[in-house]
Amino acid sequence: MSDQLNEIEKAALESLQSVTDSSALEAWRVSHLGRSSPLMSVFAGLGKLSKEERPVVGQGANRVKVALESALEERAKLVKEAALAKSLEEDALDVTLPGRGIHVGRLHPSTQQLRKVLSILADMGFQVYTSREVETDEYNFQLLNFPPNHPARDMQDTFFVEAEGRGDNPILLRTHTSPGQIHAMREFSAMNPDNPPPIRIALPGMCFRYEQITARSEIQFNQVEGLVVGENITFADLKGTLVDFARRMFGQNARTRFRASYFPFTEPSAEMDIECFVCGGKGCSVCKNSGWLEILGCGMVHPVVLQNGGYDPARYSGFAWGMGPERQLMLRYKIDDIRYFWGNDLRFLDQF
Amino acid sequence: MKIPISWLKDYIDLDGLSVEDIARKLTLAGLEVDEIKYAGLPMPEYKDGEKHEFKTSGIGWDKEKLVVAEIREVMPHPNADRLTLLDLFDGTQNQTVLTGAPNIFHLKGTGKLAKPIKAAYAKEGSTIYDGHVDGLVLTTLKRAKIRGVESYSMVCSEKELGISEEHEGIILLDDDAPVGMPLTDYMGDAVLDISILPSMARNANVLGVARELAALTGRELRKHVNKETGKQGDKETGKQGKNAVRSTQKSVTDLVEIEITVPELNPRFVMGLIRDIEIKPSPYHIQRRLRLAGMRPINNIVDATNYAMLDVGEPLHAFDYDVLVGRVGQVGNLPYKIKIITRAAQDGEKLTTLDGNERTLTSANVLVCDEKGSLALAGVMGGLESEVTDKTKTVLLEGANWNSINTRKTAGQHNLQSEASFRFSRGVHPALAEQGVKRGLQLMAEWSGGVIAPGLVDEYPLKPKDPMIAITPKDVKRLLGIELTAKQIAELLTRLEFKCTVEKNIVKAKTPPHRLDIGEGAVGLADVLEEVARVYGYDRIPETRMSDSLPPQLGNPQHEWEERTRDLLVALGLQEVVSYRMTSRERESRLFAPEGSQTLREHVVLANPIAPERSVMRRSLPASLLETAEKNARGGSLAMFEIGPVFEPQQNGLPNEPRKLAIVMTGARLASAWDVKDSPSYDFYDMKGRIELLLSGLRLSGISYAPAPASSSPSAPLSAEYLHPGKAAEVKVNGQTVGVFGELHPLAKERYDFETAVIVAEFDLDALRNAAPTYGITPVSEFPPVFEDIAVIVDEAVAAERVESLIRQTGGRTVTRVRLFDVYRDEKIGAGKKSLAYNLTYQSDKTMTDAEAAAIRTKIVKRLEHEVGAKLRS
Ligand SMILES: [Zn+2]
């Protein structure tokens, strides 16, 4: 009987060697461990055996059963591994094919830059103040200390709007966001005319200049101005605030310098330059070999402007500055043609 | 303004300062140096990694190889008629130099020159510009045979030395040039090209720049030392050096009188006279300076007017006195006393200016006249008739003062920008009229051998105020944030020639009589504070953080809301664009049928457009956006938006600037990929889906959609007239219309270049922003939901929205989601019918059974049968 069991075991294990897939494995299980398998008929015949033989054969059959089951399990593992290896190989992709895109939206680069500027200014306590784009000569020039026929008007060539009977107060497209300075000061001072509150605002928006559209000049551009008015504001505060801003904007190592300049609505006036971030100040085409980049114009608010805004210049002082987000982008991304911004070619916009 | 360094040195000792040091100091003080052009002084050499500071051009002259030399004989070339050989002494040895210079050719073969000619000599191996090629190309002199004669060196033209473009002949140096001296020491120069700010008009001259430099360095300003004459003039007393001594008896006041009719336009008019002049070229070093300063030398008299103007800042005009006499005639053998009258021109009056153009004048122009008529356009340009010519013997020299605004207008009106109008339109102090005339006469006497008539005629009806400003250490502390004593303040201002007194800690500063930019009162204080800061040095003022209290925190809800809207739109896959605010009626009317109401709409019209296609402010944001979309349509997929104002004109007042949102979608719905074939195009429902998500992102409820009205009034803020009438909807929030959207009308689409349907949306942002948002959320149930599909067949006329709202009403709170997943039409369900299949989600605050769901479903079906005649599709 034990010979017979050995035969069964040997035959089964031998045939298991040729099993390579899961269906053959199942067929093997049925024929070697199934109800009608030789091993099972040994178990079925146990009852017919003598009392002495029964435990011996029973134990022998059990041993074979355990052996076959464990061999099956082992084989099943191998078969599964082989199948997995095969399928993994077969399912391999060409990983060099391009990925599948989605339609994504982006903010216009000018909006992105405006946000960057405004968020730094928000951290520094500057609130956003917006005002209209079509203005009067009074707000765009006169109240800002540009008298009619002043040579400083040459610096800001202006688009005028057709309108009758306006005299010396024509309607025009604002040449800077500075009319908002007057709007804001008047709004704030109206809250408490005897003791106007301090002001700390950022004025973003589209401005217009009468220019030919070329790679270097545009008829419209964004500007962000900052305005501070208070009872203890000094030129040293202007420098400290703008240097802080420049470090947030261009990095903590940004070097700055202040040059005397002229704007009718500020005095003293200055230009702030930062060390060229393209060449590190060594001189390159972006900084026109000077090592410095003009980044903003600034100054102490002119007494006439304070007065026009409802703030007594004997008691209040302030500073203001203006800068161009598109210019900043052009410097930062080495954009050599300003027409890209309103050209809105997606091949340009997609890069931001 | 081009300032040669050598000229500055007439006024200030610059030892120990490099050209870059000088340029840096001026730049930081507001005299921005745009470029340094070297013409002989050694150029800085930048090693790798060293910092540049200025845009630099030009050439430095080798000290050893470029020297002053004298030409002793001009000899013929043995083999070439057009060339000559020079016998030249370079200070050390004799050289034979080949040249073709035309300006010494006439001396060929005349033997030893009685008076040797001084020339700029370049030895073998020197590097100069090639005079024979266009542009500036450096070349190094090498030994070569030219027509059989050895050549290794040359005498130079101005072009070859980088002084000017001049290459007609060689430089003929002044007779006193020391032979053998290195040229760089003799006349090496560098020119600072300075941008003059409107507030710095007083510095548009050499003296002005020198004065600034003296103030910035604390060095002494040597006024009115004239290196050419070596004599000292005194502007206060009017002494003129030794030339004045040679004057004739007849004083100018006997010969000329002046009548100023409008002092506001002509505050001062000064004239002087010089006789027995000989018109000839100016000394070479004067010509060189003029060229470096950007002016063309003409003759000694014209050059003297220009030189004096560049020197002290007063534009001068030289009249030929004899021409003026000829106009009015003589009395016996004495000339009639000439009367100069300044007055406003008559409308239509004509004058031929120096440039040969006849100009028709208006009453806004001011003229210098004699009793016969006009002589010059005041402050802008002289007249042709009385100009100085080669025959001129006597010069009447004018130094006048003109109103800056009037000059500016006149120069603009006649498009005549001259050196004079540049200065007068920015403001020249009347004190300079006298200084300028004296300086001009002095130079003329020096260069022409003329004799200056004694005295000046000087009408000075309107003197400027030259304000006195009080400034205290407290002012300086309050506005600049630095501590200075009264004495220190006074010292800084004195450097700029303010006359200062200090009393009880108050500085009283009197404006010097060369500047008009200092105001009075609070303005004057600011003006003077700027001067204190500039001379003290902006770089020395500390950087501090504001100690002032924070202002009221108002925020800007509108701006914040708009930014949030932008974020939502970007999250929906839409690209933001920003287009020109300026367009034309024609461009906008592409969107609207020619007979459409938009064409009747008014625009904000520009009085001075740059081009016809940018002549009005946009009235329609979709029109702008469609242009952008059209430019980008390359058969791909486009989904973009713009937020910004449109401009609605008001009668002769400021326009309204309502803010709008426009969205355009066209092209493939699916992003392109290598396995995506034939993506469907965007349609109405793609846009609607995005609008739904936008509105829910803005937390708006009470939203309804309805077919857009076929026509709307031209004044309606939102019009659907450019949309397909059957594929356009208006969007309402709580009954208020906030937007329209739909497919572009086929007629409008014909006027653009698009391949696929174009879906457009337009929102009135102010209306949208004013719609009240609702906050709060729907709780998320822990119990499992039951999902079920239901399909009903209804008539085509039944709107899907109606079916859905009936399902929601009937299902109540238990039906938490109703999703239409199929719309189906087929013969089997009958013509004029459609099947709508919904996926319903049942959800309750306990576990729902299928039976409970089925009961609700039955109610829904019954309701639909009853209300819209629906039949359940099995
Ligand atoms: Zn650089």
Structure description:
- The complex is a heterodimer of chains A (352) and B (874).
- With 352 residues, chain A is of the alpha+beta class.
- Chain A has helices at residues 2-17, 22-33, 38-44, 53-90, 109-123, 137-140, 179-191, 235-250, 303-308, 325-333, 340-343, 346-349, and strands spanning 127-128, 134-136, 171-173, 199-208, 220-230, 256-263, 266-275, 292-301, 317-323.
- The longest helix of chain A is centred in the first third of the chain and has 38 residues, at 53-90.
- Chain A is rod-shaped, with a radius of gyration of 42 Å.
- The mean pLDDT of chain A is 92.
- Chain B is an alpha+beta fold.
- Chain B contains 24 helices and 47 strands.
- In chain B, strands 33-36-39-43-42-41-40 form a seven-stranded mixed beta sheet, sandwiched between helices.
- In chain B, a hairpin with a 4-residue loop joins strand 5 and strand 6 (94-99).
- At the A-B interface, helix 5, strand 1, strand 2, strand 4 and strand 5 of A face helix 11, helix 14, helix 16, helix 17 and strand 33 of B.
- The structure holds zinc ion.
Spans of chain A of 5+ residues with little confidence (pLDDT < 50)?
A: none
CATH domain class of the largest domain in chain A: Alpha Beta
Helical residue percent of chain A?
40-55%
- Please state the second-level CATH architecture of the largest domain in chain B: 2-Layer Sandwich
CATH class of the largest domain in chain B: Alpha Beta
Tally of separate helices of chain B: 24
Mean pLDDT of chain B: 91
CATH superfamily of the largest domain in chain A: Bira Bifunctional Protein, Domain 2
Q: Which assembly state applies to the chains in this document?
A: heterodimer
Question: Which structural category fits the helices and strands of chain B?
Answer: alpha+beta
State the helicity of chain B in percent bands.
25-40%
User: Strand percentage of chain B, roughly?
Assistant: 25-35%
User: Which hetero ligands occur in this complex?
Assistant: zinc ion
Residue-averaged pLDDT of chain A, rounded?
92
**Apparent shape of chain A:** rod-shaped
Contiguous uncertain segments of 5+ residues of chain B: 225-248
Largest sheet of chain B: 7 strands, mixed
